[in-house]
Specification:
about 775 residues; Beta-Lactamase; 5 domains; 7-stranded antiparallel sheet; 25 strands; about 20% strand
């Protein structure tokens, strides 16, 4: 019978506890404030057990103090909200809690564990105590406590219910804290973003601080937010501006730091924030009086220390006591730091501008003085500069003059011999001199192309190129060019990537590099031509002056004398050469560098004295279809091609005459024009034109590119072939032409003219 009653009682208590927990869960579900969660759980438990006071306390990291934000009482005893030193209630009791054991004291006056510490419980009107510790991750983090003014016998059901409520309260509090922290973080980011946008364009300190104090004060809901500059003695300071909430007074004016108390002097002078929640309780009354006179009860004040000296302050104040949270202190600190950093930046910019203006004025005065007093010296310096410039020009001219004089001598000599033999009627050997003159002219054209290439002004005709095939095709030429004393080795990587380049310019670059390598090995040696695929990352790309990506390298290495670091640094400079005057123009490596850069790549020299030299050209990988490399045959036209009409435009009569003669010899009909105006008149007649062959640099206000665009207004998709003796990149859109437009570089022979004209008309 007794057992049945006991089982029924236990079942009823269990059901009651379950009902209680369901009701508690419903109550706590919609509470977002952690402190409100603690209070609601405490009230529910206190009413359920009929206990006078219930509370939830959080333990600090040192496990020495407990803080009760809010508790619940039934009115018989007072609240104990506040911060307490736990050992004041008896070390034995606290050790039990730290060990994770529930503390049950039915009567503090009779429990040996309390002993002499009973007075501490009497002071808070408690004769009986039930405390449930919450140990999380090995640390004493919080506890749920129940106090009653009279002795009370705690039952197992009381302990079980309190323990369950403690755990549920912990979970609910932590969830609410997490959500509150997330909301605070979002609000903080939104505020800082708005503050940044509001101040980003401001250029003076007062405007920055005015906006910052207003927005910070409104965000925190404080009474006043102010900023001040310190005097040199680090005691006097002036509040230059402030923001005050409605109903609060402004506090601008002159003050002395020592009047605000010893704590303010110590903390702020050391660069630490001054945080006061209630000055009437936390500092001496005479020091608090200074705050009270200007309507301040709670303060956060942030110092700016520069060079070990206190130079400025920013502060927020409440006219009523206020417990500042860590989040509020952190926000004030961040806004202060951002504002001062912004101010320092704009002040530095202003000082820099002022310094630059002052420097300009000083320079103007200095230049005027120098001009007035040292005219002869300046004239001498100008003469020296002119001499140096002429020396540099002479160095270039020496090399170019040597090359061109040799070429002109060959051309003029050949022409003179041909004129003599023609006059004598001796035609049997004249082809030899024609070939010699044409070859010299071709070499002259090559030299002008090298001059254009070093400045990256040559017009390229890029196309997908199989570099492996190109090197193989010119291998025999390279061997003959370097001579028998130099062994040539070609090392080609398997599966070398194609690249989009001008094959002719690449051939010229390779030939230049091989000849340079030969000249660096006067006693003979080994020349290695090598290709390789590369994945170039950001770090390597920055060293090479490239964009990160896939590149094919073409390298030429010699076993010659090598170069010093100083020579390597200047090797790509225009006109720089280590060869004697007359033996080199200094354009070879400049041409290589210019060609590589204009092709979207770069060039790099690796060398050391006595260790030979490697020059590598890096070219972007081409991922499209390379296709076959066919050349268009020159020669006579088919019947279907005869009668095609070409509009030839060139302001140079000789070039126009010779070109027209060559084209007519090939079977084309040629209409000649000396400038764009004459060509336009032809186009206006409506006559069909199969090709516009025009010089780029035309006189009278319309160049060749403009003429081409105008011509396509009358005849859409008209094929255009530009002729140019130099590279007008700006006119030709920096070498990138519209579909159906090509470039033919002067001078050109009849075969080249025929091939390019035929290709242009056929759209190839």
């Amino acid at each position: 019978m007794f057992c049945a009653v006991t089982e029924t009682t236990q079942r009823v208590m269990l059901e009651n506890r379950q009902s209680f927990h369901l009701a508690l869960e419903e109550t706590l579900r919609d509470i977002a404030d952690p402190v409100a969660v603690m209070a609601a759980a405490s009230e529910a438990l206190g009413r359920a057990l009929g206990i006078a006071r219930v509370g939830y306390g959080e333990i600090d990291d040192e496990e020495e103090h407990v803080t009760v934000e809010r508790d619940w009482t039934d009115g018989r005893i007072a609240s104990v909200a506040g911060k307490y030193r736990m050992n004041d209630f008896g070390p034995p009791i606290i050790e039990e809690l730290k060990a994770g054991r529930v503390l049950c004291v039915d009567d503090v006056d009779r429990d040996h564990r309390v002993g002499s510490m009973a007075a501490a419980f009497h002071a808070i009107e408690s004769r009986t105590v039930l405390a449930v510790p919450l140990i999380k991750h090995g640390r004493f983090r919080a506890m749920l406590f129940l106090h009653h003014p009279l002795p009370h016998k705690w039952t197992d059901n009381d302990v079980a219910l309190a323990t369950e409520v403690a755990e549920r309260t912990w979970s609910a509090v932590e969830r609410a804290k997490s959500e509150a922290e997330k909301a605070r973080y979002t609000a903080r980011l939104d505020f800082l973003d708005a503050l940044g946008k509001a101040t980003s364009t401001l250029k003076d300190a007062d405007s920055i601080l005015e906006i910052s104090t207003r927005m910070l004060g409104q965000q925190l809901g404080v009474s006043v937010c102010a900023y001040a500059d310190m005097d040199a003695d680090e005691d006097g300071f002036t509040i230059r501006g402030d923001w005050a909430a409605p109903g609060s007074g402004h506090i601008t004016g002159r003050y002395h730091l020592k009047d605000f108390g010893r704590l303010a002097v110590i903390e702020l002078s050391a660069g630490r924030p001054l945080v006061i929640n209630d000055n009437l309780k936390e500092i001496a009354s005479e020091e608090a009086a200074t705050f009270q006179r200007i309507g301040i009860a709670a303060t956060i004040c942030l110092p700016l220390v520069k060079g070990g000296k206190l130079t400025a302050l920013m502060a927020v104040h409440h006219k009523l006591p206020h417990h500042w949270t860590a989040h509020e202190i952190a926000l004030v600190q961040e806004v202060t730091d951002r504002s001062w950093a912004h101010i320092e930046r704009v002040r530095s910019e202003a000082e820099l501008l002022a310094s630059q203006a002052e420097l300009r004025r000083a320079n103007e005065v200095l230049e005027a003085t120098v001009a007035e007093r040292t005219g002869e010296l300046m004239a001498a310096e100008e003469s020296l500069r002119h001499a140096q410039k002429m020396e540099a020009v002479g160095q270039l001219a020496g090399g170019l003059a040597h090359d061109f004089n040799n070429l002109l001598a060959g051309i003029l000599g050949s022409l003179e011999v041909m004129r003599t033999r023609l006059a004598q009627g001796r035609l049997n050997d004249i082809d030899r001199f024609l070939t010699a003159a044409a070859g010299a002219a071709t070499r002259g054209a090559s030299l002008t192309q090298r001059m254009l290439a070093f400045s990256r002004r040559q017009t390229l005709a890029p196309k997908p190129t199989n570099v492996t095939r190109l090197i193989t095709s010119m291998e025999e030429l390279l061997r003959r060019s370097v001579g028998p004393a130099v062994a040539v080795e070609v090392v080609q990587t398997s599966g070398a990537w194609p690249t989009l380049v001008d094959p002719g310019q690449l051939e010229s670059a390779l030939l230049n590099l091989c000849i340079n390598g030969r000249d660096a090995m006067p006693s003979g040696g080994r020349l290695t031509i090598e290709t390789a695929n590369h994945w170039i990352d950001d770090r390597m790309a920055s060293l090479l002056g490239l964009k990160a990506g896939q590149y094919l390298s073409v390298s030429v290495s010699d076993t010659g004398t090598g170069m010093s670091a100083e020579t390597v640094a200047r090797a790509f400079d225009p006109f720089f050469t280590t060869k004697p005057i007359g033996e080199g123009t200094g354009l070879g490596l400049s041409m290589v560098w210019g060609f590589a850069g204009q092709s979207g790549g770069s060039a790099k020299i690796y060398s050391a004295l006595g260790e030979g030299t490697t020059v590598s050209i890096y070219l972007p990988r081409f991922t499209g279809d390379v296709g076959s490399e066919e050349t268009l045959p020159a020669g006579r036209l088919t019947a279907a091609e005869r009668g095609k009409t070409i509009l030839l435009v060139d302001d140079e009569p000789l070039i126009r005459m010779v070109s027209a003669e060559q084209l007519e010899e090939l079977g084309y009909l040629v209409i000649q024009a000396g400038d764009a105006r004459e060509a336009t008149k032809v186009l206006e007649t409506g006559r069909r034109i199969d090709l516009l062959l025009t010089d780029v640099g035309l006189p009278n206000g319309m160049n060749g590119r403009q003429l081409a665009d105008r011509a396509r207004e009358w005849q859409a998709n008209l094929p255009v072939l530009f002729m140019t003796g130099y590279a007008e990149n700006a006119v030709l859109n920096h070498g990138h032409l519209s579909p159906g437009m090509q470039v033919l570089t002067k001078p050109f022979d009849m075969e080249a003219l025929a091939r390019r004209v035929k290709a242009s008309i056929e759209g190839q």
